[in-house]
């Protein structure tokens, strides 16, 4: 399928066996699904009237695009002189699977095992770091952090060796979608010059703290658990939206049950509700242990809501 939006042509690649599902990730055959997709992206170039100068592969799901290009396509007619960029959004998710994938599923000769293996497993991200012309992250400080074993989830040895092609480019948000002056979702629009609408979005006198996040440990939720009731006793209210690990879902559910008039909780992700929280809260709490960039914090700032964070990413 093809489509044109704002002058940009999009080519949409489908395989209903792999992708007609309720959700993007977390299936038993994720490795096979994204191996197919990565190979199909390169095969697609034979059939469309477009040759890219640069292919940008993002995260482990498309990490095999530069790998396949390097092994199979680099010297084929019509594929010459394409540069590949691999972008790491979060190094925690690397695409680690058993070595049997190399020959059985990937269709890559076994003499490339050293390229694909890392610490006894197939590691999609490691292979992309090896083969891509450039490796980028979503912020300059994250590019430095992931050279440190504390942040790298085991890939620091690989990244230190390839440091010459690693750099960080600061991520950003869509300032048209996230604009309190025009946002149709929030209770009343407001701007830097007229902030009265923010009080309407908040509706109440006591300080409100917003949390919009995935419920996983690296988002600093253990820190929040430790002081949550202390913050309640200070007189604050919470508006919480997110889903993830059961231990955190259960904790916030218990807090909502214990303090129903002070803790608002929605398990899941509702984009419209997230914008209402950004607009209606006084402060935004995300003390992440590691945070590649912090888009949620940028959105909070856009809505005049002060982020409370740790210095990371």
Q: Please outline the major beta sheet.
A: 5 strands, parallel
By DSSP (H or I, 4+ residues per run), the number of helices equals 14
Structural class by helix and strand composition:
alpha/beta
Spatial strand arrangement across the major sheet: 12-11-10-13-14
Kindly report the oligomeric state of this protein.
single chain
Q: What is the distance, rounded to the nearest whole angstrom, between the alpha carbons of the first and last residues?
A: 37 Å
Percent strand: 15-25%
Low-confidence stretches: none
Mean pLDDT: 94
Helix content: 25-40%
Query: Care to count the β-strands?
Result: 14
The gross shape turns out to be: globular
Order of helices and strands: EEHHEHEEHHEEHEHHHEHEHEHEHEHE
Q: What is the C-alpha radius of gyration, as a whole number of Å?
A: 22 Å
Describe this structure in words.
With 313 residues, the protein is of the alpha/beta class. Helix content is 36%, strand content 20%. The strands form 4 sheets. The protein has a 5-stranded parallel β-sheet, with helices on both faces. Strands 3-4-8-9 form a 4-stranded parallel β-sheet. A 3-stranded antiparallel β-sheet has the order 5-7-6. Strand 3, helix 3 (64-73) and strand 4 form a beta-alpha-beta unit. Helix 10 (196-202) packs across helix 13 (271-280). The mean pLDDT is 94.
Which structural traits does this protein have?
4-stranded parallel β-sheet; 14 strands
Topology:
Layout (H helix, E strand, L loop, with lengths): L1 E4 L2 E4 L4 H4 L10 H15 L9 E5 L5 H10 L9 E6 L7 E2 L3 H4 L8 H4 E2 L2 E3 H8 L2 E4 L2 H6 L3 H4 L3 H6 L4 E3 L27 H7 L5 E8 L5 H13 L3 E8 L1 H13 L4 E5 L3 H10 L2 E4 L8 H8 L3 E4 L4
Parallel strand pairs: 3-4, 4-8, 8-9, 10-11, 10-13, 11-12, 13-14
Antiparallel strand pairs: 1-2, 5-7, 6-7
